[in-house]
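Data deposition worksheet. Section B asks for the primary sequence of the deposited chain exactly as it was used as input, without tags or linkers unless they were present during the calculation. Section C holds the resulting structure in token form. Section D is free text for depositor observations; keep each observation to a single sentence. Incomplete worksheets are returned to the depositor.
Section A, Depositor: J.P.
Section B:
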Amino acid sequence: MVASEPTTRTALVLHGGGGPRTIAPIAEHLSGTMRVIAPTHPGWEGTPRPGRIDSVSELATHYLGQLRERGEHDVVLVGSSLGGWIALEMALRAAADARYAGVVGAVVDIDGVGAVVDGEPIADFFALDARGLAQAAWHDPDRGFIDPATLTEEQRALQRSNGQAMAAVAGTAMSDPTLLARLGAIAVPTLVVHGASDRIVTPAYGQAVADAIPGAAFAEVAAAGHLPHLEAPQATWSVIDPFLAAI
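Section C:
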């Protein structure tokens, strides 16, 4: 999906396990000032997933290659949850591979997973039922709860398919034990945003990720969980917009 007309900068907005609908507000907000690319990851929403895309690293390389082919430069990577992990891997790969020099200009990691942080485990997403997921991911669980009984068989099948794609790419632990130690190689401005009530990955987890990235900023969004842009959008924009304006 591409939104807005080309302006001064491109933003690549990367969704998490819940699919592209979960980052639609981000794409809409940024499209007022930026050219927004918001793809559906291969394997999500019934799309094909090439066998070679079997890890977050491979997915990061896939997106970097697409940006390079398009002649994109100084792109702002904005990732939510799994998308945050992909964005970090893209920034690392761009810093290490001369083919992608200048492609990535900044990173905004929103409640991203991927790192292993001592004492701050990632919630076992695949073991949670609908009620447990809402309680872990939302400040107000009643807003996030979707009763499975209200879904059509097609919707349930799509959820299962998305979950299978996520397990194939991110693994059931949704982490890479090497990531935290590698984050020091990120060479672009980075903002880590975290919902204060997130129990998928806690704010302390997000702070540890920010601390591992040279010069990275950390911002906590009150009264929000794992998807602060859905639960507290104005508060989320109030931390993202100044960062983007300053880089």
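Section D:
Residues 153-170 form the longest helix (18 residues).
The chain is about 40% helix and 15% strand.
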